[in-house]
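Class prep. Write one:
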Amino acid sequence: MPGRKEIVAAAAKPRLCSAPVPASTPPKSWIRPCLLAANYSAPVVLFATQFRHPWLIAAAVGIHACFFYAVVAPSCGWMVPVATRFRARGSQVWLTIDDGPAGEASLRLSAEMVRRGVRATFFVKGENLDRELEVGRALLAAGHTLANHTQTHPSHLFWWLRPARLRAEIDACNDALRRVGVAVRRWFRSPVGLKNVFLQTALVQRDMRFVGWSVRGHDGVSCDPEVVARRVAASVVPGAIILLHEGRARSNEAILRVIDELRARGYSFVIPGDEQLV
């Protein structure tokens, strides 16, 4: 069994090229300011009218329901523009892997992916990357890209983070990415795809884009490789952004099973340019 140094060296062998991410601006939307204004003004109107009008109460409930949906629905772009697919050239898909790096497991996964000619984007937790800087560098050298998945992955509190804490989560992860050599820190994915009312401003200030997904394996809940592969294969189409995870007991097996299944169906794996995201 090869040791850690041998695995790092093999994973870092530059067999694939990682293209730079060209800058582009996500589309602007009037929905977010209108939704925020309606959500915060609804209680004022209700108190001012002393709750006398049932239709106002119903409207307020509807507004709050829309606000809640905008925060928790991963593919909803009302609060923040979300890229959920890309303009593919043929049967191309984008594999994205959350929650790493996972030490030697990431290196072994990368070695198997390189052997198959597959590149992916790893949305990493900054605190994990800080502990595994050499792994991050090896992933980059192997042709993968790394992107921001917050510093500590505050999945239960992300929607509620105040501006300073939100900025710290993004910036600390960007600093970790910079330390391993990521020149363009452009893409961001929040924990569980949650939104935050201050997130759009923070991303615009950092020239970053929110990247979601169109197909997920639900491997963060149950990581049975066969079930995960069937689930992904049933939903995938050209231009899909596929979400899978590291750090579970059978994560590598599940990811490689998905890759093999899709390759058998004629799909190729690419890392799209930013201008291709929609």
Remarks:
- The chain has two domains: 31-72, 80-276.
- The CA atoms of residues 99 and 124 lie 5 Å apart.
- The longest strand covers residues 92-98.
